[in-house]
Amino acid sequence: MGGGGQQTESSEPAKCDGVGPGGGRGGSAVYTWEEVQKHCHRGDQWLVIDRKVYNITQWAKRHPGGIRVISHFAGEDATEAFVAFHPDPNFVRKFLKPLLIGELAPTEPSQDHGKNTALVQDFRALRHRVESEGLLRARPLFFSLYLGHILLLEALALGLLWVWGSSWSLTLLCSLMLATSQAQASWLQHDFGHLSVCKKSSWNHVLQKFVIGHLKGASANWWNHRHFQHHAKPNVFSKDPDVNSLHVFVLGDKQPVEYGIKKLKYMPYHHQHQYFFLIGPPLLIPVYFHIQILRTMFLRQDWVDLAWSMSFYLRIFCCYYPFFGFFGSVALISFVRFLESHWFVWVTQMNHLPMEMDHERHQDWLTMQLSATCNIEQSTFNDWFSGHLNFQIEHHLFPTMPRHNYHLVAPLVRALCEKHGVPYQVKTLQKGITDVVRSLKKSGDLWLDAYLHK
Q1: Residue range 388-440, pLDDT digits in tens
Q2: Contact predicate 41/102, CB 8 Å
Q3: Where are the domains of the chain?
Q4: 426-427 and 375-376 strand pairing
Q5: What angle do CA 61, 7, 36 make, to 5 degrees?
Q6: How much is the CA Rg of the chain, to the nearest whole Å?
Q7: Best label site of 11, 79, 95, 211, fewest CB within 10 Å?
Q8: Over 185-210, what HEC string results?
């Protein structure tokens, strides 16, 4: 992380609605929420953390988590997101100091946009309890065993071929084992990515590079910049890349109506719940993600991630060329990607796609995350199948929490939601999967109705 940026003319501390005297650049000025909220544009960005006002206009492009994720909070209170994303906030605060331009006026509330103060305070108390009980601390043994489980699957797949040869049935079995190891590696690098925020020399960061690069052939930086946006503003159009469907699908209740009223028909959306099976699960990883990863690494000149990624393909061809040759090895990894993609799509979308999707509503952290996520019932199989992302609610509220502690904090989160009337949804695995299709059909029907009658 780097130092502070230069202030633009529009961000000079000044009298703000008569609240206080103009201050210098040392952060002595006071501001109202109305003044802060004006600075929410690409070339003029302020945000608030713990009532302190920061000008991030020039520095945002150097933000290690990516310019977009921090820019999503421009003109807003970013306190909850700041705490949620940074395992060691005190380590990060020293980089904020040069960006400080003032603070909120004493007469201003701590929450912006009329957020529920009691709910915000109760969630902060829960966060403090979680920290004090050590629930944000990872157990290295858990992740060591999980990594061993992945490596064992890969070793068994290769060992079977060396012992028994490459028959069709054995090749299919090995492909399933490799797809399983790839899916489980996805969840593991996901853990390391969240745990390594802001400390690039940490063991988490190195392990994420190894798992996503060497074991999966992808890019850690690509995933981090994309996934952190999803956590910052889940299911918010234009801010969550996971709901950017490139006009292939219409999602939620509002987007389909907007498309219908504007007579937009890039696809026959009233059939999207059917063509989803053809272009969703089969193609997301082997086509869309693969192209996007390569494009991102080259455009950003991310040669370190490219080297990690190439080491994956070198390993695959060294291991499987003796059995299948060059084109056979390409076919094998393509088939594995095809199988993994189905697994990945259903696990990630059953928690989010059937939930609320909308434009920015400036909700508090708890309400925003709960409206966009749901849980899948706990069981040994569900925990393993989803990489513990069946506890999606807890993961979104505490993204740096190691997965082995989700079940411990879940009762506390549910109690807090009941106290404040925030819906806490838990589904069976079957319902979670079928709701994906139902939500697509519902959205397609809304589009058709608006397209024909409005």
Answers
A1: 999 999 999 999 999 999 999 999 999 999 999 999 999 999 999 999 999 99
A2: no
A3: 9-114, 140-232+277-349
A4: parallel
A5: 90
A6: 23
A7: 95
A8: HHHHHHHHHHHCCCCCCCHHHHHHHH
